[in-house]
Each structure stands twice: as C-alpha cells, then as structure tokens.
Amino acid sequence: MPVSLISSHSGARRSGGARAAHKGQQTKAAIVDAALQLATQVGLEGLSIGAVAEATGMSKSGVFAHFGSREELQISVIHEYHQRFEQEVFQPAMALARGLPRLKALFDHWMQRTSVEIDSGCIYISGAAEFDDRPGPVRDALAESVRIWLAAMRRAIVQCRECGQLRADADEAQMLFGIHGLILASHYEARFLKLPGAIERAHRGFDNILARYALPEPA
C-alpha cells in the first residue's frame, strides 16, 4: 500500500478514536451531572448504578461501562460537586484584593450557595452525616474536599491579619470555626427547622466575628 494511503488510514483511525473518546467523555459528564442532581435529593448513599441509569435513560451496563462500581460513581460526584463549589465560591473571590475584601467575598458567595442549597441540599453536609463513621474511599474523598475548602478560608483569614486588618492576636482557627458554624447553623435552621431569617442571622453573625477581631480602619 502506498505510504500516502497508509498515512491517510492511520490519520482516519486517530480521528475516529479521538471522536469516540470525546463522545465517551461527554457521556460520562452527563452521567455525573445526573448523579449529582440525584445525590442532592437522596444523598450519596442513595446513589446506585440502577437509579442513575433510570435518571439518564441509559442501561445499567451503559452506566457501569463508565463507572465500574457504585463507589467510583459516588467519588466522581464528590469531585464534581467540589469543582462546582470552587467555581462558584472560591474563584470569583480570588479576583479581589487580599484581606477583608476577599474574605467577605468568600463568605458572601458561600452564603449565596447555601441559600440555593436550602432547597436542593448540600453534599458536604448530607455526606458528613452519612459517612462520618464509615471509613473508606468515599469518606476520604468527601473529607478531603471539605479540608481543602476550609484551608482556603483559613488562608484568607491569615492574609487579613498579615494585611494589618485583624488584631495580631486574632486566632484564625477560632474565626474559621465560628464562620463554618454559621454556615452549618443557617443550613440546619432553614432546611430542617424551616425557621425564617436564618440567612440574615448568619450574615449578622459574620459581621460580629469581624467586629470582634478587626482593627479600626485608618482615618
């Protein structure tokens, strides 16, 4: 066979393989998206290959071809949730200056997402209740995502102190604990107890934390 034909056939195979790989990635992304939507309603524990197959209109074998186990599916959902959380909460705040503007933006974006998740549910919170005493890869993936996010908040608090906007003795661990507690309390009150005003109380609580530790602005 002439070299040109060999090259042509080889290029066609590579092109066809690339298209198949791209289609496979799109299908997998669609499955993860459907699984994430389902997990916000039934929790990570409620996910199954069969339930996701029904939600996507695929066969069980089709879903299984992309995720070899229920555990792998659960972990993929956690990673997708974490990626979306970073895009909505973390990345917009990084465009602001270090210090209080960035810390306030992180909290504001976090609260905006919490407001939405009062109806849809939070994977971090529901997952912690499901897997707090169940060691394994799913718990590890969930805990690592939460640790990464809390570490980012902690860095933002430390930067406020380094910028001279917080007292030198400001305890970043205690501040982070208080801020994280506001998120959890607002979600619990609004979603579980259906108490009005939880989001507003969380914002006032955040202002109180800053007032306790912040230095007065220069005249």
Automatic annotation (TrEMBL):
Residues 25-85 form the HTH tetR-type domain. It comes from the Bacteria. Residues 7-19 have a biased composition (Low complexity). Pfam families: TetR_C_13 (PF16925), TetR_N (PF00440). GO terms for molecular function: DNA binding. Residues 48-67 bind DNA. The keyword Transcription applies. Gene3D superfamilies: Homeodomain-like (1.10.10.60), Tetracycline Repressor, domain 2 (1.10.357.10). InterPro entries: Homeodomain-like_sf, HTH_TetR, Tet_transcr_reg_TetR-rel_C_sf, TetR_C. Residues 1-23 are annotated as: Disordered. Keywords: DNA-binding, Transcription, Transcription regulation. This is TetR/AcrR family transcriptional regulator. It comes from Comamonas flocculans.
